[in-house]
Amino acid sequence: MIKIDPFIEKIPHSPTLWANDLVHQKRGQGEQVFHMGFGESPFPVPDRLQKALAMSAHRCEYLPVQGLDGLINVICDYYRPLLGDEVIENTDVVIAPGSKLILYALQMAIEGDLLMPAPSWVSYEPQAMMIGTDVVKVPVTLDDGGYHIDSEGLRFVIKAARANGQNPTKIILNYPNNPTGLSIPKDELGSIAKVCQDEGVLIISDEIYGLVSFDDTYSSISKYAPDITAVTTGLSKHLSLGGWRFGVGFIPKGVEGLYPAIRHIISETWSCVAAPIQQACIEAYKGHEDIERHIRDCTSIHRLMNKTISRGLKDLGIECAMAQGAFYNYPNFAPFKAALAAGGLFTSQDIHEKLLNDYNLATLPGAAFGVEAEVLTLRVSGCDYDGAKALEAYQGGEALDGAFVAKYAPNIIRSLDIFGEFIAEYT
Questions:
Q1: Number of neighbouring beta carbons within 10 Å of residue 252
Q2: Pairing of strands 361-362, 364-365
Q3: Is the peptide bond between 176 and the residue preceding it cis, with omega within 30 degrees of 0?
Q4: Band (16; pLDDT cuts 50, 70, 90)
Q5: Domain containing 246: what range?
Q6: In whole angstroms, what is the distance from residue 201 CA to residue 28 CA?
Q7: Which end of the chain is more exposed for a tag (fewer CB within 10 A), N or C?
Q8: 83 pLDDT exceeds 90?
Q9: Max CA-CA distance within the chain?
Q10: Do 299 and 220 share a structural domain?
């Protein structure tokens, strides 16, 4: 009998993709569903990039595994002022069908176990499981000041794990962070980098939301430890191009053998990113004013939508740090723990299921992001609106205020109302 490896059966389907599939199914059946379960930026593809892709449709050749030279050159030029000369001059660039595969390749290439701050994005831990390594969780603190990782606490976790027979050799940091919408404060990055340098830990800096930062600045830990930091990014978030499946990795030359190892993995897996996509994406990195304005305007709308959610949740008495970037908020229902328990809700999964089944509000449980089930957190995304209409209105001169949200994102307003009804049911 042909059997599926039981190890693979233990790996869950991506909760974010599952939530999106479920919402599409329900909406296809005519149900009204309020979708805070999936972070897909809703804005249209800029005309310049649509035309570039159409003009590249004839490209049918295999490209070099690391990517098209002309594309790599413009990417380096684009990121030079963001990451700094030292980082750009001391990294090699690879292109992949989405940054998720670069994260997986980096985990695969580096021997040892993964240090994972919790909460973190849903795929880090399953990827570690798929290559047979342990996950060592690192505690974080969340507040209006950001996503905090205590550097000496990190050092303690590393040493304790080694004393326990584990081998933590790599850490993934993501900021602005999915699921919390918070960033690691700039003045804390240096001390985190120092611990990783002292302890011989590769930093994998997932900066896919780096250009969706609400303070309009780009910060990267790579500046503090360029020799041991790999940066991953792409176009899916700030240019709403998730479906193009385009990712970028900056691989540090200071880690001997890492770049050749990544190229070997590419050669035996995805081979190369589709030639038309690579050619078209060159235009995304040339600094065209229409593209840069598009990024700024979309980020401004993301800021409005997600800070509206932050304030709305706080007003209901739910713990929620004010969003600093990306598309997310991370409410904590701890103030209502006793009341929820009295009503039979004991875990984040219970809250998630209640909202979905009784209110048709899709969220994701905090447990999907690496925290304990009894921690009553959810991840909510602020993307359930018509991005094309919102962008056109903003660029046409309409002010970004509460009236704008009510007019162009009524599902966000209704979702906040549902949270109020949910709390009222238990208090």
A1: 22
A2: unpaired
A3: yes
A4: low
A5: 59-285
A6: 47
A7: N
A8: yes
A9: 65
A10: no
pTM to 2 decimal places: 0.95
User: What pLDDT is stored for residue 261 in this prediction?
Assistant: 98
Residue 268: Cβ-neighbour burial (10 angstroms; 0-12, 13-18, 19+): exposed
The verdict on 119 and 246 lying in the same domain is yes
Is 394 part of a structural domain of the chain? yes
407 is a domain residue: yes
> Which residues 6+ apart lie within 8 Å of 122 measured at CB?
14, 15, 16, 364, 368, 369
- Contacts of 415 by beta carbon, 8 Å cutoff, 6+ apart: 34, 36, 309, 361, 380, 384
Residue 17 in tokens: 């993709």
Residue 18, pLDDT above cutoff 90: no
pLDDT one-digit tens code per residue, 239-275: 999 999 999 999 999 999 999 999 999 999 999 999 9
The secondary element (H helix, E strand) that includes residue 141 is: strand 141-143
Q: Do 221 and 184 share a structural domain? A: yes
| Residue 53 maps to a domain | no
Tens digits of residue pLDDT in 128-166: 999 999 999 999 999 999 999 999 999 999 999 999 999
Are both 295 and 277 inside the same structural domain?
A: no
∠ CA 42-270-86, rounded to 5°? 75
Distance of CA 280 to the CA centre of its chain: 23
Give me the count of residues in the chain: 427
